[in-house]
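Notebook p. 47: complex prediction with 5-O-phosphono-beta-D-ribofuranosylamine.
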Amino acid sequence: LRIAVLVSGSGSNLQSIIDAVENHTLTSQIVSVISNKEDAFGLERAKTHHIPAYFINPKEEGYDEKLLVRLQEDQVDLVVLAGYLKIVDANLIKAYRGRIINIHPSLLPKFGGKGYYGIRVHEAVLAAGESESGATVHFVDEGVDTGKTILQKTVPVYETDTPQLLQQRVLHEVEHKILVEAIKKLEEA
Ligand code: GRF
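Predicted complex, structure tokens below:
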């Protein structure tokens, strides 16, 4: 599959896909990495691995149009939102329905939707006294974190957990694994 990865931050999820492509766990290729943040480290990761990296400025006119044109020009088969913190435009959803996936650091539908992103997800999980947490890879539809689940994996929550400790456990033990596994499933579909 020709994959475009959309990032807004450090891109550790992107890195897990890059590594899986390079060690041939995945047969796909990442044709572009796109960010709405000029300083997203994910763009650096792309450049290090000689993957075309694009910053599209959300403050300028036509952000959504530019993004869609970029994907179409690159003949992208699968769009992966990996730590991408912007709501996806309805035209993009329509153009890529069933071919756009997102990873969210909770067991959706719990702790998903507007306002639940980054460390706030894990703060809410701890505040709710959950005994387990995890992450979900799902298809993206018009809602926020509401599309059909592809893969989900749990981790235990410990009494001694802080939001940071839980975030790191979910990120390293779950997110980086299930995102690659989900793409592998789609390769075989
Ligand atoms: C991760 O928790 C991811 O689940 C969320 O954004 C966070 C940062 O991801 N969507 P990354 O390190 O930028 O891939």
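Notes: The radius of gyration is 16 Å. The longest helix spans residues 163-188.
Next step: compare against the earlier run before touching the bench.
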